[in-house]
Amino acid sequence: MVRYSRGQTKANVKKSRIALEQAQLDYEQSQLTVRQTVVQAYRDVVSAYNAYKVAQVKENAYSKSFNAYNIQYQYGTITTVELLQQQNNYLNALNSYIQIKYSLVMKRKILDIYMGKKITL
After folding, report:
1. Is residue 69 a contact partner of residue 78, using CB atoms and an 8 Å limit?
2. Is the pTM of this model over 0.70?
């Protein structure tokens, strides 16, 4: 006895093919999203590294400047206010340097996670 499904089997096969194509497209989209995320994480690391190098130079310059002001203060050529202003500038540069340094470390660790590397401190 032959049963007719009124085209239901053919429609089910077509739905299954469409579902398979959709799953393949979803997979490809996921791959692209992951790739974009990794590329953005890499760019973040590069940007953070450049900011770190700039902050390092700035901190070093303010440190030397503060040391020069400190010597001038010891010889009495500048006032306490001028020394404190320079000390404040140095501390701001140092604070910025430390924040940028640890931001770089964090962004690097995030990239390592995306790259499948084991995390070490």
Report:
1. yes
2. yes
